[in-house]
């Protein structure tokens, strides 16, 4: 009996974890969290100019 309860709790936690991952994939903001410098404004850099 106790073993069945432990298995059910572990299974429920696994389902909740996977559900949370799907929820975060679908409903979070669509920006990257990496170091790609998405917020940098490149509008004043023309072709042929180098950035130092």
Helix and strand topology:
Elements: H1 2-27
Low-pLDDT ranges: none
Mean pLDDT score, rounded? Answer: 79
Described by the principal axes of the CA atoms, the overall outline is rod-shaped
Gap between N and C termini, in Å? 68 Å
Q: What keyword list fits this structure?
A:
52 residues; transmembrane helix; transmembrane; membrane; FeoB-associated Cys-rich membrane protein
Question: Can you give a write-up of this model?
Answer:
There is one protein chain. The chain has 1 helix and no strands. It has 52 residues and is an all-alpha fold. The protein has a domain at 1-27.
Task: Give a brief description.
The protein has 52 residues and is mostly helical.
């Amino acid at each position: 009996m106790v073993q069945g309860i432990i298995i059910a709790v572990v299974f429920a936690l696994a389902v909740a974890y996977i559900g949370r991952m799907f929820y975060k994939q679908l409903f979070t903001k669509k920006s990257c969290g990496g170091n790609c410098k998405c917020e940098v404004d490149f509008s004043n850099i023309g072709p042929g100019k180098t950035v130092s």
